[in-house]
Design a protein that fits this description.
Length: about 120
């Protein structure tokens, strides 16, 4: 499965591994859909292997599915780059649910998926 990232840069294709999908299937469908939506909106220019924090708040879940996601979920997504590839793709290889404290550690290290698309600003890690 491929997601086309909405930022301008060399790395403009995100491949999703089957392991990532298997991990995501452990959660309600609405939550998995929200995670994929956040990945599509990401503005990070990933140039090397890294992990990023993702927070899914119930407010971004459609109203009819909010009963499945009643509190915020915090995730760490692992990304792998392929320097030798002509396609210059990035693969999201895994995702783990983490605690709020671990998420805050990621934020303090500036490893968070940012959503500044309205201003068309791209944050570089």
């Amino acid at each position: 499965m491929d997601l086309i990232l909405r930022f301008i840069g060399d790395n403009n294709k995100l491949d999703i591994s089957t392991r990532f999908i298997y991990e995501l299937e452990r959660y309600p469908f609405a939550l998995g859909k929200a995670v994929l939506g956040e990945l599509e909106k990401m503005t990070n220019n990933i140039t090397n292997d890294t992990s990023l924090g993702i927070v899914i708040h119930p407010d971004i879940i459609p109203i009819h599915a909010r009963h499945e996601v009643r509190h915020p979920y915090y995730f760490e997504a692992y990304f792998k780059t392929f320097y030798w590839s002509r396609a210059d793709t990035i693969e999201v290889v895994n995702i783990n649910r983490i605690s709020l404290d671990m998420y805050l550690d990621l934020v303090l290290d500036k490893q968070v998926l940012t959503k500044i698309l309205e201003r068309k600003v791209r944050n570089v890690l």
